[in-house]
Specification:
The complex is a heterodimer. Chain A is an all-alpha fold. Chain A contains four helices and no strands. Classes of the chains: A mainly alpha, B alpha/beta. Chains A and B meet through helix 1 and helix 2 of A and helix 3 and helix 13 of B.
């Protein structure tokens, strides 16, 4: 896994949820982080789009429910 | 620490702001956050700005934001725009507390007295309804314009506004209806009336009329906003269908900025004055280097960019915004360009105040605020120089510094985009403000010069001793007659022997004056030699050292001499002025002190007195 990209993604999640990056581990998901609900999911995806200059399809929104899946989708976009 | 040659990468800006906050430097942190937002605003950076503000609130000297309670009632998703709005508002000095109505329940929210719309006691309510939601048939373009349908939609808006106003005194901002990207009739629709486009135009006119019936109800031209950014790229149909978010991500910021153009004037966060730099801001080039003929200011490239800025200044002035200049330049040269250059669209009369000097701009702006009698938080500042902008931001964080890129063609737009210049109503006072300040300035120029001169004389604490010369003074008196050229009525040169003879002679009086002021003793600085014939006196010599020119000392000396002559029962004093290339400063002396056309002063002359600020 690309360490730098993982950290960038986790930082975006931390910023959006107003928590510290220390609370967003590589296994963080909608189930483990309290504030990560569907509204915040929308904000996280928009922030990812702005930061990485990509665009996610509507189907991908709910699919990207943890750090690992976000990285996979990003990888596919930027391939 | 900060790279001034261009905007730093986001990660660097972020690090620098963290450092500034750790160092408790609120002003620097705010300045850098403003720069960050102007380059990188968006969903990724909004949360950063909001957390930094949380930290700043705990700091002394941080943050004097005005609280404002906002409720948004809507027919579509606006959630992602809210953090953008809150961040931009904080940077503009407004702290928003935002409540959202339930999705697509805007009618119930307004009509029901115990809905969240009223329960949260908002200061402002925004009603954001799309055309496709309130007039789906018109959106779908079903046939020709139907008058009844247009009237029904207008009536629906009127009813919602009326219900709101009957339950709340808060401000209401109503979105009008947007046109579809493609007209239903294709190009046919634009050929004659009665089409889909007309229906929406008529509804929007009806919304404006309905709003005008009440105070504090404003129309937000949503259609205008969408056109400004381009109908074809404004919406995101995929997101609309899946998340009811019709506005594309890039445009959410534009929606937030448009809301801010209403929230700022409603909360009173407006700029009452715009202070502008001159070089490379109102004209291209540097006056001091390029000269008045070398600056770029006309209808061609690049001068046109600066004329565009001047046009904005004129528009702002018509809104009652005061204009002022703050420039590091030679004042005379700069004012001449403002008055005479053919490319200028604004003229000196358009400005209420000029600070054209070499003093730092923060001090100048503080002085401007005092002289205009407004707060520094009501001042906006336009300057092409990033270093000047940073200096002012750090010294006066409450001043609205307009952020600029290095492309002059973008300056006019930057001014038009700034929410601090927006006004929701115009009073007669606003319309007449420019003339008011021009009149004030004329009055003060007159007053100011008189008052400050007298204060200046008084502050010198001058003491004058006028006496008849004795042997010990002869050397100095003779020297003065030989050396004094400027303030010398007759320029007669006398040796020590000549003066000694005058002193001995009963038909002559030789006066000298010794001056001290708060800086010290100046010694003998004036000489008057009088020739007496019966009761007629003649002013053979009257001179004064250039050391004391311009302080009314000559008036005091003459008054003292005249008192002495009056004591001796003199009846006239005849003056004499012999012009030389150097004694112009004395040319009006006799006329100014009551000597007639015949150069004669009748004695006694009670109107000739020692000025009040000189002690004798």
């Amino acid at each position: 896994m690309d360490k730098a990209k993982s950290e960038h993604v986790r930082q975006i999640i931390a910023d959006t949820l107003f928590i510290s990056i220390d609370e967003v581990g590589e296994d963080a998901s909608q189930d483990t982080l309290k504030n990560w609900d569907s509204l915040q999911q929308m904000n996280i995806v928009l922030a990812l789009e702005q930061s990485f200059g990509v665009r996610f399809k509507p189907e991908e929104f709910s699919a990207m429910s943890n750090v690992e899946k976000i990285l996979q989708h990003l990888q596919a976009k930027q391939a | 620490m900060i790279d001034q040659t261009g905007p730093a990468p986001l990660s660097d800006m972020r690090k620098n702001i963290d450092l500034a906050i750790a160092a408790n430097d609120a002003a620097l942190a705010m300045a850098m956050m403003t720069e960050l937002w102007s380059v990188h605003a968006g969903p990724a950076t909004a949360p950063l700005v909001l957390s930094w503000f949380n930290k700043l609130q705990g700091m002394a000297g941080g943050l004097d934001a005005k609280p404002l309670r906002l409720t948004v009632l809507r027919s579509f998703s606006v959630e992602p725009a809210i953090p953008l709005l809150r961040a931009a508002a904080l940077l503009g000095g407004v702290q928003l507390d935002v409540t959202l109505g339930d999705f697509n329940t805007y009618s119930q929210d307004l009509l029901s007295p115990d809905s969240p719309a009223y329960a949260s006691s908002p200061d402002v309510v925004v009603l954001a309804v799309q055309t496709r939601d309130i007039a789906p048939d018109i959106w779908a373009g079903q046939g020709l314009l139907d008058e009844a349908r247009v009237a029904a939609v207008i009536a629906e808006f009127a009813g919602l506004i009326d219900a709101f106003r009957s339950r709340s005194e808060a401000a209401l901002v109503v979105h009008n209806l947007e046109q579809p990207t493609w007209p239903a009739e294709g190009v046919l629709g634009g050929q004659s009336g009665g089409c889909q486009r007309d229906a929406i135009i008529r509804i929007n006119a009806g919304i404006v009329q309905a709003a005008a019936q009440y105070s504090g109800v404003y129309v937000l031209d949503y259609d205008g906003l969408v056109s400004r950014h381009g109908r074809a790229c404004w919406s995101d149909e995929a997101r609309w269908l899946t998340m009811r978010l019709p506005v594309a991500m890039e445009n959410l910021l534009h929606l937030a900025d448009e809301w801010l153009k209403y929230l700022m004037p409603i909360s009173g966060k407006v700029a009452k004055a715009l202070i502008v730099d001159l070089d490379n801001t109102l004209w291209g080039g540097v006056l001091g280097e390029d000269g008045a003929d070398g600056i770029e200011l006309d209808g061609e490239y690049p001068g046109a960019a600066f004329q565009a800025v001047q046009r904005v200044l004129l528009d702002l002035s018509r809104r009652g915004i005061i204009l002022g200049v703050c420039s590091k330049n030679d004042e005379g040269d700069a004012l001449k360009v403002l008055a005479d250059h053919p490319g200028m669209l604004v003229r000196p009369d358009d400005f209420a105040i000029f600070k054209i000097n070499w003093q730092d701009k923060a001090t100048n702006i503080k002085e401007i605020a005092q002289e205009l009698n407004i707060g520094t938080d009501a001042i906006a500042f336009l300057d092409d120089n990033a270093a000047e902008r940073l200096w002012v931001r750090q010294s006066l964080p409450e001043v609205h510094v307009i952020e600029l890129t290095d492309d002059p063609l973008s300056y006019a737009d930057a001014l038009r985009a700034a929410p601090v210049f927006e006004r929701l109503s115009l009073s007669n006072e606003d319309r007449q403000r420019k003339q008011h300040y021009a009149d004030q300035r004329a009055r003060q120029d007159l007053q100011g010069s008189v008052a400050s001169l007298e204060d200046f004389y008084r502050s010198l604490d001058m003491h004058l001793d006028v006496f008849l010369v004795t042997a010990s003074d002869i050397q100095r008196v003779a020297q003065l007659t030989q050396k004094t050229n400027q303030f010398n009525l007759t320029t007669r040169r006398y040796s020590e022997a000549d003066i000694a003879k005058f002193v001995e002679d009963p038909a002559h009086m030789v006066f000298a004056a010794r001056a001290t002021d708060r800086f010290g003793d100046s010694g003998i600085i004036a000489v008057a030699i009088i020739a007496i014939d019966n009761n007629k006196a003649r002013l053979d010599t009257f001179l004064m050292s250039c050391r004391v020119i311009g302080r009314t000392v000559e008036t005091a000396v003459l008054a003292c001499v005249v008192r002495a002559l009056e004591d001796g029962d003199c009846q006239t004093l005849v003056g004499e002025f012999i012009p030389t290339p150097k004694n112009a400063p004395a040319s009006e002396f006799l006329a100014n002190h009551g000597f007639g056309e015949d150069q004669t002063l009748k004695l006694p002359a009670p109107s000739l007195q020692v000025p009040g600020w000189i002690r004798t």
